[in-house]
Amino acid sequence: MTDTPETQAALREMLDRAPEPDADAIAAARARNGQLTKPPGALGRLEELAIWYAGWRADPRPRIAKPQALVFAGNHGVVARGVSAFPAEVTVQMVANFEAGGAAINQLCKAAGADLSVHAIDLDRPTADFTQGPAMSEADLMEAIAIGWEAVDPGADLLITGEMGIGNTTSAAAIAHALFGGTAGDWTGRGTGVDDAGLALKTTVVAEALVANPTAASDPLEALRCLGGRELAAMAGAIAHARVLRIPVVLDGFICTAAAATLDRAVPGALDHAVAGHLSAEHAHAPMLAALGKTPILSLDMRLGEGTGAALAIQILKGALVCHSGMASFAEAGVAAGQP
Ligand SMILES: O=C(O)c1ccc[n+]([C@@H]2O[C@H](COP(=O)([O-])O)[C@@H](O)[C@H]2O)c1
Ligand SMILES: Cc1cc2nc[nH]c2cc1C
Q1: Ligand 1 centre and the CA of 77: distance in Å?
Q2: Which ligand has the minimum distance to the alpha carbon of residue 93?
Q3: Within 13 Å, how many C-alpha atoms sit on residue 270's CB side?
Q4: Residue 220 falls within a domain, yes or no?
Q5: Which of 76, 79, 84, 86 to mutate to test the pocket of ligand 2 (most atoms within 8 A of CB)?
């Protein structure tokens, strides 16, 4: 177990020192890919995904055997501003649903063979309304990051992080606005389904959030503290620990990606171990992924969160790895190779 970072500076330093993927495994996986019984490139993006995964696992012929899914839940003071189509109590109610096995993420993790755990973080202590000042103190931020960091199973060979938190698309939009600029309207969407008036109000709230938190635009981890929520901070903590442990990560939707983006902007390369599982229907997810240089694996118009898009993408990655690691070479199968 790696020591849990106790300060923003310690987290930054651990990401700075995090190991790179294994160059020999990448070279060997690339060579193997070139010998498999298929026309070159015929498995499309599955081929690059398999080679990417091989590098992070330092194994030219790996399989996915122990995927882990972490779902974090948090409540947001900004909900009092009327930014969600649902009331805040849905967060705790959905946590009960996760624990009873009744949510979409439960079914999708079962189908993907992923070990799911749910971490509700101080639901009776919402973050402060970030239109009035920082959402979290430094201590609250680091405590939530630690919960995510410590939830990662060092024996896992793939990680997905999901979230549940009424109001958290407002938080994610504010973070994106702080990290990537533009206007509040560029990053604000309907979330669980606010109407036109709700969207206009939410856009104003996102703009106010940046005015109330002037340090957020110049420091990505401050953006997470000032504009984030506990579940976003926990996802960032888990994704950062996975980077240190060289566990590949599949990102989920808009909120997960916003949390992860704070790491990338704090330390370039901090998300090299992560792929985008899907493209959310929340319109600002596409420009956020583009800014991070990530192409989503799936695009199914989903906007549920919980880790559901990432859980589905596990099955695509498993497909990539069973082909890469299980297929015969031209020589083994006695199949004539094509022109070089
Ligand atoms: O993952 C996404 O892209 C996504 C897009 C829209 C909404 N959500 C989920 O909806 C909740 C937040 O929506 P809202 O409208 O309350 O901000 C939260 O629990 C998220 O998991 C998730
Ligand atoms: C019912 C419901 C389920 C969710 N799962 C993730 N976010 C959600 C938001 C709502 C409203």
Answers
A1: 15
A2: 2
A3: 25
A4: yes
A5: 86
Radius of gyration of the chain (CA): 20
ipTM: 0.99
Q: Which ligand is nearest to the CA of 85?
A: 1
Q: pLDDT digit string (tens) for 84-95? A: 999 999 999 999
Within-domain flag for 243: yes
pLDDT score of 191: 98
30 domain residue, yes or no: no
Pairing label, strands 249-251, 67-73? unpaired
Q: How many domains does the chain have?
A: 1
Sign of the dihedral through C-alpha 185, 187, 190, 192: negative
CATH number at residue 90: 3.40.50.10210
Best probe residue, ligand 2, of 90, 106, 107 (max atoms within 8 Å of C-beta): 90
CA of 240 to the centre of ligand 1 (A): 22
Nearest atom in ligand 1 to the alpha carbon of residue 280 is 3
pLDDT (tens digit per residue) in 241-262: 999 999 999 999 999 999 999 9
Answer whether residue 338 is part of any domain.
no
Cα of 86 to ligand 2 centre, how many Å? 8
Q: Which residue range(s) make up the domain with 231? A: 65-317
Structure token pair of residue 79: 């909900």
Which sequence positions are flagged as catalytic? 306
- Per-residue HEC secondary structure of 265-301 comes to HHCCCCCCCEEECECCCCCCHHHHHHHHCCCCCECCC
Instruction: Provide mean pLDDT across the span 256-272.
Output: 98
- CA–centroid distance, 94 to ligand 2, in Å, is 7
Q: For residue range 94-126, what is the model confidence (pLDDT) as tens digits?
A: 999 999 999 999 999 999 999 999 999 999 999
